[in-house]
Structure formats: C-alpha cells, structure tokens
C-alpha cells in the first residue's frame, strides 16, 4: 500500500482478505464485505465488529444497502440476500422468490423499495413485504444484472415526469417505471444505442 495513504483501520490482520463491497453508513461507520463472508465494521478508525456469521459462512458478501427502516441488507455470491435487523439475520433466497442467489448489487429507490440485481434478473422488495421478480423472459434486457439506479425523467427525455429505474445488464439498459415497475419500450436514440452491449454500471 502507499506509505502516505490514510487507512480507516489497521490492515495487517486482513492482508489476505479480498474486499467485495464497501458501504458508509449515515453515522460514518464503514462496512466492508469480504470474499470469505466476513463483515468488517469500522468507526473512528477502530474495528467494532469482525465476524463471519454462521449464515454467511461459505459465501462472499457482495453488496450493502440500508432500507427505509434503517435495517442493513447484505447481498451474497450464492446465498441470496440477508436483512440485518438488530442482531438477527433473515435470509431471502431463490426459494423465497429472489431472482437468483448470486446478488451483484442492492439499490433503494426514493419510494423505499429495495432492488436486488442478480445474475438472472432483478427482484424488487416492496415496502409491503412482497417480492416482484423480473427476468429476460419478462422483457428485461439481458440476464446478468450489474447494478440499478434511479434517474429523473427530464434527464432521460427532457420532459417532466416520474423518475425511472435504470437496470444495467449484459444485454444493455432496461428502463422501468418506478411506480408500477413496468418495462418501457426504447423510444430515443440514446436508449436504442444502449441495446446489445454489456453495461456494467449506470449512475
């Protein structure tokens, strides 16, 4: 590492770890998800938690996001997603309706819905507790989804309207209505130009 780089905590015990995900909480706490399944939490340059939970053993932690109630969500590379409420982890996997157990990113939209990008489509965890899954067979462009982002309608179309959800995948970008989660047909040169290409990130 660079000798002048200021690090958030001592790194010697973790030199052989591979970091898969980072998240900064509102209280300035840093969360790091590791390839080993370890979750590292750092505050004021001190490690306050350094554990591999039994539920996360054998899989990597790939993503973090916080929901509207302040609960932390963890994406994994093979066990779906986990909601951390207090000290309790609740798993949601393909068996419970998640699109796939390999989760690449998690996004919370401005309505409080949780969007899960996976290697086989997306799932939307609605605030009422239900899950909606959208895959290529449902009109999603591509299969392997990398990330999800909310964008203003004016940015996309130059006109007033509700925000849209952008989904980046290996087949291009899919645009959905934020409210009803319906897929919109490409209508501009920009949208059509983003088809049939591998998009790894949209922001």
Can you give the mean pLDDT?
Answer: 87
In DSSP terms, counting alpha (H) and pi (I) runs of 4 or more, how many helices? Answer: 2
Please compute the radius of gyration using only Cα atoms: 18 Å
What is the 3D shape?
elongated
Distance between the termini: 29 Å
Number of strands: 15
Q: Helix/strand-derived class?
A: mainly beta
Q: Order the strands across the largest sheet as they lie in space.
A: 1-2-3-4
The helical percent reads under 10%
Largest sheet: 4 strands, antiparallel
Note the run of SSEs as H and E. EEEEEEEEEEEEEHEEH
Strand content: 35-45%
Question: What are the low-pLDDT stretches, counting only 5+ consecutive residues below 50?
Answer: 1-5
Task: Give structural notes.
The protein has 203 residues and is mostly beta strands. It has 2 helices and 15 strands. It has a 4-stranded antiparallel β-sheet, with no helix packed on it. It has a 4-stranded antiparallel β-sheet with strand order 5-6-7-8, with no helix packed on it. The protein has a 4-stranded antiparallel β-sheet with strand order 9-10-11-12, with no helix packed on it. The N terminus is likely disordered.
């Amino acid at each position: 590492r660079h000798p002048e780089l200021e690090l958030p905590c001592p790194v010697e015990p973790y030199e052989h770890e591979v970091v898969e995900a980072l998240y900064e909480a509102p209280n300035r706490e840093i969360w790091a998800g590791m390839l080993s399944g370890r979750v590292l939490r750092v505050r004021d340059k001190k490690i306050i938690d350094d554990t591999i939970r039994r539920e996360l053993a054998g899989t990597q932690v790939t993503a973090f996001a916080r929901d509207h109630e302040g609960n932390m969500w963890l994406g994994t590379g093979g066990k779906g997603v986990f909601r951390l409420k207090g000290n309790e982890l609740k798993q949601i996997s393909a068996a419970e309706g998640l699109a796939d157990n390999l989760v690449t990113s998690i996004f919370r939209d401005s309505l409080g819905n949780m969007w899960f990008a996976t290697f086989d489509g997306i799932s939307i965890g609605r605030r009422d507790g239900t899950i909606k899954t959208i895959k290529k067979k449902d009109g999603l462009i591509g299969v392997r989804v990398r990330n999800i982002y909310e964008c203003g309608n004016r940015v996309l179309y130059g006109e007033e309207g509700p925000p849209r959800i952008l989904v980046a995948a290996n087949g291009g970008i899919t645009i959905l209505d934020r409210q009803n989660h319906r897929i919109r047909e490409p209508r501009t040169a920009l949208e059509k130009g983003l088809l049939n290409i591998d998009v790894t990130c949209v922001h």
